[in-house]
Write a structure and sequence with these properties.
By secondary structure, this protein is of the alpha/beta class. It is 37% helix and 18% strand. It folds into 2 domains: 161 residues, Rossmann fold; 151 residues, Rossmann fold (3-Layer(aba) Sandwich), CATH 3.40.50.2000. The chain has a 7-stranded parallel β-sheet. Strands 10-9-8-11-12-13 form a 6-stranded parallel β-sheet, with helices on both faces. The longest helix has 16 residues.
Length: 328
């Protein structure tokens, strides 16, 4: 039996788990109370992540494999400490080699290293972090994928209505303030430019900016297919599945240097910038507005090509690689 513990259980994780199509062979542990309605083929148990548990206390026989997110979730760690289960940690932290991670090396070595049998990570940044923590066991990349069967390039980029789109939570870490300041300046010079913000509502109205609260994935696909360029100005984004979603839809990219997915999906299909430098972002947005149609098409096609690095199909293959390697 396989148990997957995933905090919050975001929509992309639900899509990945449903794609496994392992009827009644997987149990999901999460704090997301809506998960029971969204998970198709697995038993879902909603638990508090702030409590200690035994497998018996939550009515589950000890699984053979336990995949779980993070190393700070009290509930998952308490379950992982019990013997005779192969524990695969799902983490996305990027290597920074700052003081906090320096201390983390020792904490990981003495308190966590013996708990984990393997790790499933998004890309090389997290892989390098675990090696920095002296983790010498199995690590596979490819943890995150959007639903590539849903997010597709459906509209020619030169026919799209919006110049720029942001999709995500309206929280300080996403750095919307810098994006809005840069766009406000841009609007004065390029009076027909526009920006679409998706995912919240607590933003002051600015000329040329349209705000749409949180919506479902199907509507996001339509909006991305009506937008030329995704802008993600985050101060910190360990990965950013929205980047994969945007490339699947053929959008160009303007990404903060601190977006983890940048190394995989950003080549000549956009620009990166310093999230603390408004002028840098302004210049990159201006570059997109000044891009000729034939170059927009080339960059859009490159985004679509780069998106093929990840898929639900590849995610499924990586998942079963763990099962095969840990059982041998």
């Amino acid at each position: 039996m396989i148990v997957i513990g995933w905090s919050e259980l975001p929509s992309y994780a639900i899509d990945c788990i449903n794609f496994l199509n392992l009827r009644n062979k997987i149990i999901i542990l999460t704090d997301n109370k809506k998960a029971k309605k969204l998970i198709k083929y697995s038993v879902v148990k909603v638990i508090s992540l702030q409590k200690n548990y035994t497998w018996e206390s939550i009515g589950i026989s000890k699984p053979k494999y336990f995949f779980f997110t993070g190393w700070n979730n009290k509930a998952f760690i308490s379950l992982a400490k019990q013997k005779k289960t192969k524990n695969i940690c799902l983490i996305d932290n990027n290597i920074k080699k700052n003081f906090r991670q320096f201390l983390g090396r020792f904490y990981f070595k003495f308190f966590l290293n013996n708990i984990f049998d393997a790790a499933f990570v998004p890309g090389k940044n997290t892989q390098n972090l675990l090696r920095y923590f002296s983790f010498r066991k199995l690590i596979l990349t490819g943890l995150y994928s959007c639903n590539n069967n849903l997010f597709e390039n459906k509209k020619k980029i030169t026919k799209r209505k919006y110049d720029f789109i942001f999709v995500g939570k309206f929280i300080p870490r996403k750095n919307l303030e810098t994006l809005l300041k840069a766009f406000k300046r841009l609007k004065k010079k390029y009076i027909n430019s526009n920006l679409l913000l998706v995912g919240g509502y607590n933003v002051k109205k600015i000329d040329g900016v349209k705000i749409i609260p949180h919506i479902n994935s199907k509507k996001i696909v339509n909006l991305m297919n009506n937008s030329k360029c995704l802008v993600l100005p985050s101060y910190e984004d360990n990965w950013g599945v929205v980047v994969h979603e945007a490339t699947c839809c053929g959008c160009l990219l303007i990404l903060s240097n601190n977006v983890g997915a940048k190394k995989e999906f950003l080549k000549r299909n956009g620009y990166d910038f310093d999230p603390y430098n408004e002028e840098d972002l302004y210049e990159k947005m201006e570059n997109v507005l000044n891009t000729k149609d034939r170059d927009l098409i080339k960059k859009s096609l490159l985004s679509s090509k780069l998106s093929e690095k990840r898929s639900l199909q590849i995610w499924r293959i990586q998942f079963f690689k763990f099962i095969k390697k840990l059982s041998s």
